[in-house]
Design goal:
The complex is a heterodimer of chains A (about 400) and B (about 240). Chain A is built from twelve helices and 17 strands. Chain A is α+β, with helices and mostly antiparallel strands and about 400 residues long. Chain A has two domains: about 180 residues, no CATH class; about 210 residues, no CATH class. In chain A, strands 1, 5, 6, 7, 8, 12, 13, 14, 16 and 17 form a ten-stranded mixed sheet that branches. In chain A, strands 9-11-10 form a three-stranded antiparallel sheet, with no helix packed on it. About 5% of the residues of chain A have low confidence. With about 240 residues, chain B is of the alpha/beta class. In chain B, the strands form two sheets. In chain B, strands 3, 6, 7, 8, 9, 10 and 11 form a seven-stranded mixed sheet that branches. A four-stranded antiparallel sheet of chain B has the order 2-1-4-5, covered by helices on one side. Chain B is globular and about 50 Å long. The two termini of chain B are about 30 Å apart. Classes of the chains: A alpha+beta (about 400), B alpha/beta (about 240). At the A-B interface, helix 1, helix 9, helix 10 and helix 12 of A face helix 2, helix 3 and helix 4 of B. Bound molecules: adenosine-5'-triphosphate and magnesium ion. The site of adenosine-5'-triphosphate has 12 residues of chain B, from strand 2 and helix 1.
């Protein structure tokens, strides 16, 4: 028999009161845990979405004349007086201090090409990456992976007579959509062979109408574009995706500018900032609520322990008469508080984690609940125990200070 | 020097918010030898419990000192005084004060909780103490599953489990019927015969008759002692009042 056995005995006896406080603590801890895990999921999700939704830093050569523009970014035409971006700049980007914060580096070469006497803008890029960045793209067919393959924007494909929109869905040479869930007009494929700069190419995919400039463009692999445009190793722009939680965008921009002194580095931050702010506000709210919950927990445990001290005055007198030191009495009450809050914390964490997972579909887009994290569990338990122990310190000392003879007379 | 020496002990209470002081003990002196069984008698409110708790190292006297086994009890720090109680004293209270949520065995183990004995030694000691009180078959009963007399014996077992040199009992028969009261007195007598020093507060002349001598207190003053040697009627104690 140890001090803790006395505590366990008394807890067993006073089940009702203990259940009350444990449930109270559990509700507090549970709310905080659920909220925390939800905001964590949302932060992750928004971070991931932003990473996918596109580059937030664009690097272009410093240019004077303006001829082509892409995605709102003005590109210089053949401006030979200026130093162009090249493949080597990629490795310079990868050497900046915050390189590990860069989730995507997408180099591009843009240039005008002639097909069948019509002018088109050809974009050379790492197409698999491009497709991941432009989540809104719906590619019918597939993404080119060979040097002689092309991907066409919707209008470009129509102008070149590659496709024709039809209503019926019973043709053999249909390209079947990847996104079968959305019923969209089937695209009827008329031709796949194109001649570009004297070379033969095959169209392997068409991007459905996006309403953006992409519709008029032709996409090819970067080396292909560099060959066709006779600009080996050259790049028109480099898109860099650096969005992650709390990324120091300004520092990254500064480091990139330093690494590429002849290029113009600009961050497309507005959308990013707005989204981040929303999450940060949510996160602050959940922090504030956590503090309130902890305060409520503190007061609850405090009141319960004060009552417990009063209820057990005589018991304290008996133990003191039997030779228990004041410090033993303090320990008994502290062990009791720690046990109660540990139980409350455990229960609260379980409830919170579960409701975080269950409610995730209503608050997040992917619906994936936060994986119960060990760190959150430990934090919840630690917070519960710290609150429990801290709030019981005064009642415990009060109990120890009871005059043993008075305590024995207490009714 | 005697085993217990009480020297000129005075106790005044100053109840909260009351200007006047209540003097409960006025210069009490007494001595108790090892192996004695002493009764402390007196009218209600005369200061018996107060004196017992002062001897029991629980309540600082306003003046005077208590020396037990050559230790000046109130020279000790408060925590050391708690240790002293654990080592030297066993208390039996009128209401027994068993912890209701612990079994008989656990109640008896309470004083051992704060000793360095291992779990098995604690259990064995407590079992022996209970068996000595004739409760070998009631280890796992909760106090409310025991009769008043049995509760009293559990309380005595708890007081004795540490083998303290001095047993202090405050009206151990106070709220028992006379038969179970006699049962408890019989137990104390037997313990005393095995050498246990006992100081017992009682209102009951029959109980007092079982002791070696009676200290009488009135209005906080100890009256002349009345020794009643030879009044140990043994078995017949329950039936006939000690009358010699
Ligand atoms: N904490 C206290 N504050 C003020 N007065 C007290 C206090 N404790 C005891 N007294 C007073 O001291 C006097 C003696 O009390 P005590 O309990 O020693 O009497 P007692 O002889 O044990 O009486 P009883 O036989 O009824 O138990 C009483 O008048 C009581 O009111
Ligand atoms: Mg009394």
């Amino acid at each position: 028999m140890r001090l803790i056995d006395i505590v366990i005995g008394s807890l067993r006896r006073r089940k009702g009161r203990m259940a009350f406080i444990i449930i109270g603590l559990a509700v507090g801890v549970g709310t905080v845990v659920a909220l925390r895990s939800l905001t964590a999921t949302m932060e992750q999700e928004i971070g991931a979405q932003l990473d996918q939704y596109g580059a937030n830093i664009v690097i272009v050569p410093k240019a004077s004349s303006q001829e082509l523009s892409y995605g709102g970014v003005t590109l210089s035409a053949a401006t030979f007086d200026l130093r162009q971006l090249t493949d080597e700049d990629i490795s310079r980007i990868k050497s900046i201090k915050y390189a590990n914060r860069l989730s995507l580096i997408a180099p591009k070469l843009l240039g005008a090409v002639d097909i069948d006497g019509q002018k088109f803008l050809l974009s050379g890029a790492q197409l698999d990456q491009e497709v991941r960045m432009k989540q809104w793209w719906q590619v019918v067919g597939r993404v080119p992976d060979k040097a002689d393959e092309l991907l066409l924007g919707y209008e470009a494909a129509q102008k070149l007579g590659v496709i024709e929109a039809v209503k019926s869905a019973d043709h053999d040479s249909m390209l079947h959509s990847d996104h079968t869930s959305v019923r969209q007009p089937e695209l009827k494929l008329l031709r796949t062979e194109l001649t570009l700069g004297g070379e033969q190419f095959r169209v392997v995919g068409v991007i459905r109408e996006t309403g953006a400039q992409d519709d008029q463009m032709i996409f090819a692999g970067l080396p292909t574009a560099q060959r066709v445009l006779h600009k080996p190793g050259e790049l028109s722009l480099i898109e860099v995706s650096a969005l992650c939680q709390g990324c120091p965008i300004d520092d990254i921009v500064a480091q990139l500018s330093a690494a590429l002194p002849e290029a113009k580095v600009s961050a497309l931050q507005q959308a990013v900032r707005a989204r981040l702010q929303t999450v940060e506000r949510l996160s602050r709210f959940s922090t504030a609520l956590s503090v309130v919950m902890l305060l409520i927990g503190f007061v609850m445990v405090f009141i319960t322990m004060m009552n417990s001290v009063v209820e057990r005055t005589r018991e304290v007198g008996v133990l003191r008469a039997l030779g228990f030191r004041k410090s033993h009495i303090v320990r008994i009450f502290m062990i009791e508080a720690a046990l109660i809050s540990l139980l409350g914390g455990l229960l609260g964490w379980a409830v919170g984690a579960l409701s975080g997972v269950l409610s995730a579909p209503y608050f997040t887009e992917t619906g994936a609940g936060a994986k119960p994290s060990l760190a959150l569990a430990l934090a919840a338990l630690a917070a519960a125990v710290i609150v429990g122990v801290a709030s019981s310190l005064y009642p415990a000392i009060k109990a120890a200070k009871l005059d043993p003879t008075e305590a024995l007379r207490y009714y | 020097m005697s085993f217990i020496t009480i020297e000129n002990v005075t106790k005044t209470y100053q109840p909260n918010g009351v200007a006047s002081r209540a003097t409960v003990l006025r210069g009490v002196s007494a001595e108790i030898e090892e192996g004695e069984f002493v009764a402390l008698m007196g009218p209600s409110g005369s200061g018996k419990t107060t004196l017992l708790t002062i001897i029991g190292a629980m309540s600082q006297p306003t003046e005077g000192r208590v020396v037990i086994d050559e230790v000046d009890v109130y020279d000790l720090s408060e925590e050391r005084r708690a240790d002293f109680r654990r080592e030297y004293l066993g208390f039996v209270f009128q209401q027994h004060h068993l912890l209701p949520y612990l079994t008989a065995l656990e109640n008896v183990m309470l004083p051992l909780v704060i000793t360095k004995l291992n779990a098995k030694e604690k259990r064995t000691k407590a079992q022996l103490a209970l068996e000595r009180m004739g409760l070998g078959d009631k280890f796992d009963r909760l106090p409310n599953q025991l009769s008043g007399g049995e509760q009293g014996r559990v309380a005595i077992a708890r007081a004795l489990v540490n083998e303290p040199p001095l047993l202090l009992a405050d009206e151990p028969t106070g709220n028992l019927d006379s038969k179970t009261g006699d049962e408890i007195i019989g137990v104390l007598r037997a313990l005393n015969e095995q050498g246990q020093t006992i100081l017992m507060v009682t209102h009951n002349p029959e109980a007092a008759a079982a002791t070696h001598r009676v200290l009488e207190i009135q209005d906080g003053i100890l009256l002349s002692e009345s020794a009643e040697p030879g009044c140990h009627a043994g078995q017949s104690l329950m039936e006939e009042v000690c009358a010699d």
